[in-house]
Specification:
Radius of gyration: 29 Å
Strand content: under 5%
Bound molecules: zinc ion
Structural class: mainly alpha
Order of helices and strands: HHHHHH
Largest sheet: none
Number of domains: 2
């Protein structure tokens, strides 16, 4: 009379294999012919995807949209020395710091463009400032993944 233990596989009716065994895994295996294939090279696709590991492309936690392009333009301007310190130090610029990139980057790019012509079109500059101030109702948190000029 054996004492039943926790997690023991019943052997009544013959040995049916451990649930951890390769044989048990093979029983639920999808045959190669039924497996979803990559749309480019017909290798087996990654689970839940249409492509294989090679053709999935680079993984990114950030969507390609969502203001990333504007953020990159701001980065290029900064590296070219075209982001004026007078603009970066303004409360308008700083008030946008806590917003997500999708809102922050386009507003700041608009600020840069309006700043460029603030002597010629002061009303446009004032309008861009007003829109940015309306966007940032309350000061947000610092963003540790953004560049320093984005956190000013
Ligand atoms: Zn592929």
């Amino acid at each position: 009379m054996a004492v039943e233990q926790l997690g023991e596989v019943k052997r009544v009716g013959g040995w049916r294999g451990s649930p951890n065994s390769l044989a048990a895994a093979m029983r639920n295996r999808v045959p190669y012919s039924d497996a979803r294939k990559c749309k480019r090279c017909r290798a087996i696709a990654v689970r839940g995807q249409d492509h294989c590991r090679t053709h999935l492309g680079r993984w990114s936690p950030l969507s390609p949209g969502a203001g990333r392009g504007d953020s990159r333009i701001l980065g290029k301007l900064e590296r070219a020395g075209l982001l004026p310190l007078e603009l970066i130090a303004l409360p308008v610029w700083r008030s946008l710091a806590g917003l997500p990139t999708s809102q922050r980057a386009p507003a700041r790019l608009a600020l840069v463009q309006a700043w460029d012509k603030r002597q010629v079109e002061p009303l446009h500059w004032a309008k861009a400032q007003r829109q940015a101030l309306d966007l940032a109702v309350q000061p947000g948190k610092r963003q540790f993944t953004a560049w320093f000029y984005e956190n000013r």
